[in-house]
C-alpha cells in the first residue's frame, strides 16, 4: 500500500508521473540549459496501487537451488560497481534455522566482450533474522544476500574503466550456479562535457500492480541511470503471518504486541 509515504519520495514520484503523462519526449541536459520545469499533479490520475500477492507470477521466486535472483547493481564511482543478489530460500514460521552463508560463494565474472570473462571478483554474503519473542508472531530468516564490489584496490588490482560497457555473470561457479549474462555500463569520469545525460529518479516503488509499468516508463526514456531513493517494498502493512495489506496497521490490529512486518515482501523488492 502506498498510503504511508515519506514526503520527499512522494513528491519526486508524483513529479515523474506528471512528466510521463504528458507523453512528450523529455529533452536531455545536452540540449539545455533550460529553466527547471515542474508540472502540477493531475488529480485525475490514480493514486496508490494495490500490492500484488507474493504468489503472483511476477513476485514468485523463479530460480531453483542456489541460482542467483534479484540481481541488482549499485554505482559507487566511475571505476567501480556493486553487484548484489540473493540465493537460497528465506524461511518464515515457527522454527526457522538460518542458512549458512559460507555454503555459497559470491563471484562476479566480467569482461568487455560478451561471453569472455577475463576478470573475476569475490565478495561477501550474509543472512539476517527477524525474531519476535511474542506468541502468535512468526520468525523470519532471510535468503543469502551477496555483495561483490568491483573496484581498484592495492595498486595492482585495476578498477573498471569509466564510460565502458561490461558483460558479467554472478553466482557460484563451483555448484555450478552462475546467472545468465547481464550487462552494465560505468559512469563517465566527471568533466564539463561528460556526465550522465539523463537521470531518472523514483521512490515508493512498492510491489504493486503498477510497479513494473512505472519502471517501464522510466526505462523507455533511456536514462543513463535510475536513482531509486527508497521505499522499494512495503512490509510493514502486514502481519508476520502474511495475508493482505492494511492501510492502517494499528487500526486494523489494535492488540498487536508490536508493529510487526512481513519480511518476505521486503526481501522480494528486486522482483518489481
Ligand atoms: C525471472 O525473473 C526475472 C526478473 O523478472 C527475469 O528477468 C527472468 O527472465 C526470469 N527468469 C525466468 C527463468 O523466468
Ligand atoms: C522466535 O524467536 C524468539 C527468539 O529466539 C523466540 O523467543 C520465539 O519463541 C520464536 N518464535 C517462534 C514462533 O518460533
Ligand atoms: C495499475 O493497476 C491497476 C490495478 O490495480 C490496473 O487496473 C491498471 O491497468 C494499472 N495501470 C497500469 C498503467 O499498469
Ligand atoms: Fe513510501
From TrEMBL:
Xref: InterPro entries: Metallo-depent_PP-like, PAPs-like, PAPs_N, Purple_acid_Pase-like_N
SUPFAM superfamilies to which the protein is assigned, alphabetical: Purple acid phosphatase, N-terminal domain (SSF49363)
In Pfam terms, one family for this protein is Pur_ac_phosph_N
Query: Purple acid phosphatase N-terminal domain location, by residue?
Result: 68-186
Spans traversing the lipid bilayer: none
Q: Does the keyword Signal apply?
A: yes
According to the record, the signal peptide region is 1-23
UniProt keyword terms in alphabetical order: Signal
> What GO molecular function annotations does the UniProt record carry, in alphabetical order?
acid phosphatase activity; metal ion binding
What's the domain of life for this entry? Eukaryota
Signal: present as a keyword of the record? yes
Protein known as: Purple acid phosphatase N-terminal domain-containing protein
**Which organism is this protein's natural source?**
Thlaspi arvense (Field penny-cress)
Amino acid at each position: 500500500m502506498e498510503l504511508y509515504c515519506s514526503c520527499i519520495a512522494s513528491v519526486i514520484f508524483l513529479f515523474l508521473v506528471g512528466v510521463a503523462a504528458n507523453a512528450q519526449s523529455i529533452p536531455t541536459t545536452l540540449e539545455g540549459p533550460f529553466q527547471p520545469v515542474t508540472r502540477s499533479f493531475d488529480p485525475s490520475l490514480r493514486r496508490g496501487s494495490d500490492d500484488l500477492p507474493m504468489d503472483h507470477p511476477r513476485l514468485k521466486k523463479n530460480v531453483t537451488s542456489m541460482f542467483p535472483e534479484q540481481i541488482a547493481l549499485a554505482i559507487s564511482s566511475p571505476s567501480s560497481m556493486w553487484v548484489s543478489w540473493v540465493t537460497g530460500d528465506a524461511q518464515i514460521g515457527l522454527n526457522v534455522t538460518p542458512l549458512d552463508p559460507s555454503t555459497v560463494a559470491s563471484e562476479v565474472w566480467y569482461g568487455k566482450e560478451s561471453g569472455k570473462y577475463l576478470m573475476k571478483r569475490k565478495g561477501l554474503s550474509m543472512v539476517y533474522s527477524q525474531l519476535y519473542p511474542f506468541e502468535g508472531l512468526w520468525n523470519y530468516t532471510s535468503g543469502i544476500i551477496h555483495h561483490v564490489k568491483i573496484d581498484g584496490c592495492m595498486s595492482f588490482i585495476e578498477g573498471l574503466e569509466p564510460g565502458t560497457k561490461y558483460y558479467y555473470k554472478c553466482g557460484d561457479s563451483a555448484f555450478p550456479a552462475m546467472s545468465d549474462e547481464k550487462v552494465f555500463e560505468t559512469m563517465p569520469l566527471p568533466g564539463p562535457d561528460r556526465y550522465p545525460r539523463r537521470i531518472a529518479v523514483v521512490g515508493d516503488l512498492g510491489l504493486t500492480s503498477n510497479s513494473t509499468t512505472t519502471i517501464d516508463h522510466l526505462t523507455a526514456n533511456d536514462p543513463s541511470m535510475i536513482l531509486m531513493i527508497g521505499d522499494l517494498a512495503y512490509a510493514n502493512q502486514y502481519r508476520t503471518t502474511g495475508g493482505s495489506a492494511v492501510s492502517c496497521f494499528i487500526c486494523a490490529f489494535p492488540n498487536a504486541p508490536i508493529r510487526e512486518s512481513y519480511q518476505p515482501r521486503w526481501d522480494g523488492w528486486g522482483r518489481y
